[in-house]
Specification:
Layout (H helix, E strand, L loop, with lengths): L3 E6 H13 L3 E6 L2 H5 L8 E3 L10 H8 L4 H12 L5 E7 L4 H17 L5 E8 L6 H19 L7 E6 L6 H16 L12 H9 L2 E8 L4 H10 L12 E7 L5 H11 L4 E7 L4 E8 L3 H29 L8 H7 L21 H9 L3
Parallel strand pairs: 1-2, 1-4, 2-3, 4-5, 5-6, 6-7, 8-9
Antiparallel strand pairs: 7-10, 8-10
Helix pairs in contact: 1-5, 1-7, 3-5, 4-5, 5-6, 6-11
């Protein structure tokens, strides 16, 4: 726990990190909105407000302009480093669809790794795709943000290491995802059970956490391992992983360490190069798939969702315009003759106009309509 720090960028990422801080983890919060930062109850040293900003209002282009101004990136990274210089693994956590987090989160992870990677600092990313029914702008931000992350991951520099991709579609209430993630990460990173039946030691755990690629974690408790695993997959807060892991990790309830159960895990995650496994006395089982390829299918699905919303938007606007074009001609002349009346006018002297306020021409506009 001392060697790990979780950094929330934007409101969505900060909400996740707040749950992790409740579990006792090191936390740091970055936001362009001071009001959002004020909602986080933590030590003031754990907060960083981007100078002069009142929020990004989900404007990705504006966020890029802000984060790239002068030495803003270096200042933020330096602040993180100074606050938690003894840490080794730095998790940058944000939602893909936000302005501050979705735009700045990946950029800061890259920059931090570039600046401090030679000192053994590792930059991991935890990010979240939006619900499929969220607004077009949110979907568009998410696509661009994920493509930005993919480009950074594939550029050969190795600045982005381990990626966990959560799915807001997995729960009705997004806050439940935050809590589930925090609890499982806490159990995993606090694991220290030593047994002759198998031991997931500190070095093996670090390998799982720092292997380049996607990482997925499942936790479940069930007397029937197969049913429990199936239920865990259906309720997983992660996007579906590819079946080409470099490593698998397993912390199993003692009665579940059986060859048949290991085969079930392989059917789900694929066949790893190595499996780091152990047992414990807890009722739950924790399964980890680490080092899978970048899941391009996620971007494809986001684009499909975006296109579907665009088509619906275009159809709704088309119908609205068509309905707005109907017009009925009415002759008001007969009614106007009935309502015609003689009005007296008075001349205004030039002296009486002095000090008179200017009046809108709108009043004259509607009066003149009645005289036609």
């Amino acid at each position: 726990m001392v060697e790990t720090v979780f950094i929330g960028i934007g409101q969505g990422g900060s909400n996740i990190v707040r749950e992790l801080e409740k579990e006792g983890f090191n936390a740091f919060y970055i936001n362009s909105s001071l009001e959002d930062l004020d909602t986080i109850e933590t030590n003031i040293k754990n907060k960083y407000h981007i100078d002069g900003m009142k929020g990004m209002a989900k404007n990705r282009q504006y966020a890029i302009e802000v984060i790239t101004q002068d030495d803003t990136i270096d200042k933020i990274c330096r602040k993180i480093y100074e606050r938690y210089a003894n840490a080794t693994i730095y998790y940058f956590i944000y939602t893909l669809s936000g302005g501050t987090g979705g735009t700045m989160g990946g950029i800061l992870a890259e920059a931090f790794s570039e600046l401090y990677g030679e000192e053994g600092k590792v930059a991991n990313v935890v990010t979240v795709i939006p619900k499929s029914n969220e607004d077009l702008g949110m979907q568009g931000n998410a696509i661009q943000s994920l493509e930005q992350l993919k480009e950074a991951y594939n550029d050969g520099k190795g600045l982005i290491t381990n990626i966990q991709l959560l799915d807001n579609n997995s729960r009705e209430n997004k806050m439940d995802i935050n809590r589930d993630f925090a609890i499982t990460m806490s159990r995993l990173l606090n694991y220290d059970h030593i047994t002759a039946d198998g031991n997931l030691d500190e070095n093996e755990l670090e390998v799982l956490l720092t292997t380049p690629g996607f990482m997925t974690i499942l936790e479940f408790a069930n007397e029937d391992f197969g049913n429990g695993l199936s239920d865990a997959v259906n309720k997983s807060i992660y996007v579906e992983p590819l079946k080409n892991p470099k490593y698998d990790g397993m912390i199993l309830n003692k009665k579940h360490k059986k060859d048949i159960n290991i085969e079930l895990v392989r059917d789900l995650f694929g066949y790893p190069t190595f499996t780091h496994d152990s047992v414990w006395d807890e009722e739950t089982n924790i399964l980890i798939s680490s080092g899978t390829s970048f899941n391009n299918k996620v971007i494809t699905e986001l684009k499909k969702s975006y296109k579907d919303l665009m088509d619906k938007k275009a159809e709704a606007e088309k119908q609205s315009i068509e309905n707005n074009e109907d017009d009925i001609e009415i002759d008001f002349s007969a009614m106007n003759k009935v309502n015609t009346r003689t009005t007296q006018t008075s001349k205004t002297t030039s002296s009486s106009t002095k000090g008179r306020r200017k009046s809108s021409s709108i009043r004259d506009k509607y009066m003149n309509l009645g005289k036609k």
